[in-house]
From TrEMBL:
Belongs to the LysR transcriptional regulatory family. Keywords: DNA-binding, Transcription, Transcription regulation. It holds the Pfam family HTH_1. InterPro entries: LysR_HTH_N, LysR_subst-bd, WH-like_DNA-bd_sf, WH_DNA-bd_sf. Residues 4-61 form the HTH lysR-type domain. Coiled coil: none annotated. The lineage of its organism: Bacteria, Bacillati, Bacillota, Bacilli, Bacillales. SUPFAM superfamilies: Periplasmic binding protein-like II, Winged helix' DNA-binding domain. This is HTH lysR-type domain-containing protein.
């Protein structure tokens, strides 16, 4: 004997409920022959007939009536055990709250989170966005677990890890005064007063090409 299985027990229960092999097969998305095979295997396993077939009608045999409450209990316990396990798994699911800027959330996080979820599918992730200062406040208030921001905080309480370095390119047209003046451009960008129009250095004529 191959042993009982839940598919056979479910087939028996549905046939009893629907009072018809054809209706039960439709409910279970099976052909009627496939359903009949399940019942035949079940009857062979328990070595008795569960149904009395009279033409196109069926009814439970006396052994089928005795067997039905046990089948219903087995199916109910199976469903209850599944629900209990799912509930336990949901309670144990890890949560990760991330705070970051809108730019990082839009352009960097999607690919990172996809890779992370492939490795850690059991972690439930939520994201909050704000300015870097606001995100650090969230971290300070324990609203989030980790922060992804542009500028490293000076606060020594936080562990910091550099993830990316942005490469910023300066591009100008050939007829612009900055074109070809690498040294002047560097000095201009590094000066503390670069935002003050009155202190902008004069640009000499082009002498080289970027």
């Amino acid at each position: 004997m191959s042993g009982l299985n839940l598919d056979q027990l479910e087939a028996f229960s549905v046939i009893v409920r629907e009072k018809s092999f054809s209706k039960a097969a439709e409910m279970m998305h099976l052909t009627q022959s496939a359903l009949s095979i399940r019942i035949s295997k079940l009857e062979a396993e328990i070595e008795t007939d569960l149904f009395i077939r009279d033409g196109r009608t069926i009814r439970l045999s006396k052994y089928g009536e005795l067997y039905l409450p046990f089948v219903q209990r087995i199916l109910a316990l199976t469903q209850e055990s599944k629900m209990m396990l799912h509930q336990a798994m949901n309670e144990e699911k890890l949560h990760l709250h991330i705070g970051t800027t809108s730019r990082i959330a839009t352009y960097l996080l999607p690919s990172l989170l996809e890779q992370f979820q492939n490795v850690m599918p059991q972690v439930d992730i939520s994201i909050q966005t704000g300015l870097s200062e606001e995100v650090l406040e969230m971290l300070h208030d324990y609203t989030i677990h980790i922060a992804l921001i542009n500028d490293p905080p000076e606060d020594e309480r936080w562990d910091k890890l550099l993830l990316f370095r942005d490469r910023i390119l300066l591009i100008s047209s050939p007829d612009h005064p900055l074109y070809g003046n690498i040294a002047v451009i560097n000095n201009f960008l590094l000066t503390p007063c670069m935002a003050c129009p009155s202190s902008m250095p004069k640009i000499p004529p082009p002498t080289s090409v970027l």
